[in-house]
Amino acid sequence: MHHRPAVEVSDLYYAYPDGTPALRGVNLVVEEGESVGIVGPNGAGKSTLLLHLNGILSGRGEVKIFGLPVARENLREIRRRVGLVFQDPDDQLFSPTVFDDVAFGPLNMGLSREEVAEAVNRALREVGLAGLERKSAFHLSFGQKKRAAIATVLSMNPDLLVLDEPSSNLDPRARRELSELLQGMRITKIVVTHDLPFVFENCERVVVMDQGRVVADGEVFSILSDEELLREHGLELPYGFYPFHRERSGRKTERNPES
Amino acid sequence: MKHAFLDEYSHLESPVHRLDPRAKLLAFVVLIVVCVTTPPHLYSAFAAYLGLEVALVLLSRLPWKHVLKRLLVVLPFILVVAAFVPFFSRGGGSYNLGPVKVSAHGLMVLWNVAAKSTVSVLAVILLSSTTPFPDLLRGMERMKVPRLLTSLLSFTYRYIFVLVDEAQRMKRARDSRGWSGKWIWQAKVIGHMIASLFLRSYERGERVYAAMLARGYGGRVRTMCLYHPGIPEVGFTSLVVLFPLAARLLA
Prior knowledge:
heterodimer, A: alpha/beta, Rossmann fold, four-stranded antiparallel β-sheet, 10 helices, B: mainly alpha, 3% strand
């Protein structure tokens, strides 16, 4: 069969209603099974790009998800396949209980009552929140809210998980738990963040965006050790963090630290 | 931050808590309608309504302190207005209470308002303290209350405290910068805060809507109902509906 990447964005332009350009010709291909970090300064267009992946926004240019063009007639299927997790979990968790929130997607997909219950249980177990179904999102800790927000898209059984600033506002333990959760999931992932160590831990590939364009795209180690590139685009590694220390996260290194 | 929740104690274990929310909703609405339409001179009917509610509070194991506290939150507003009626109303006979005159007709109005509002507010407290709010919403949906209304209530329940927290954070940030609220020109600041709270809520609304679209929302909120009405529901509803009706007709 014809080879189909998970995401194909070509020549995407988008300007906000007030005329401010946000995307100026973005080209990006993400293969199935990849885990890609998108980094860049504030206002680079990262979040705007994410909103194009499931047709919330639509600009000039082409976006294809698993070969399907993002167009009105495909929106249902695309929104099922693309699980978009927003930055603020309070935006994503709008139902009176956690159960209702996680069931929202599957119910919209028209699943039967048993299938919905099954999907909700599976998603909550996967993010480690089984037993909190009847709680209101307001009673959850921030880390739990974040994981509940991820469960709300996992219940739709997506093929591509898209996360906007997943590690923001998390305490170190919640951040590590999120990392472990993501690494345990085998689906294609796109993570937009300013948290470079988080990208280093969870992504094999990094895309750098600035002023509405992709300015660099490559293997995580080579991009994050290119200090000049990072500085040029408003990115800096946190004090004391060097990509050479990758082994400490307990993952295999693809590259010899001495090279 | 901690807030007093609308449906505090709604997760207790009791025969009343276990009932289908629809049964409770129907029963209490009927009780309120029957009570409000009762002529005020049927004292024994009011005694029966109150007695029924006291029995239900006992049956549902709600702490009395909680029930009275809730009652005290709502009742004064109603009573403060009604308390003046006997002094200004004319008609009926009148009694002399020291230097002031009290009209009998006015006293009847006060009694009418006090009795009916107490019974009605107690009914609402019983309903909201024995039914988790989300279940109540589901019950309303199943009883064909318009979706627009239930969605509105549902979003309010979910976001009211998020909004309160946001306002509280703004207030702290304002006070941390030396705001005293003493001068008339500082009133402008409050206006700005309200405007900015409104804008933030508006923007949040857009983000929430985007999050709904992202999960396939197409204009209809779908929910699941987990209750099946049975014998306890029929029994409860008949009791709460028929007993007051009988009390009123026989009084």
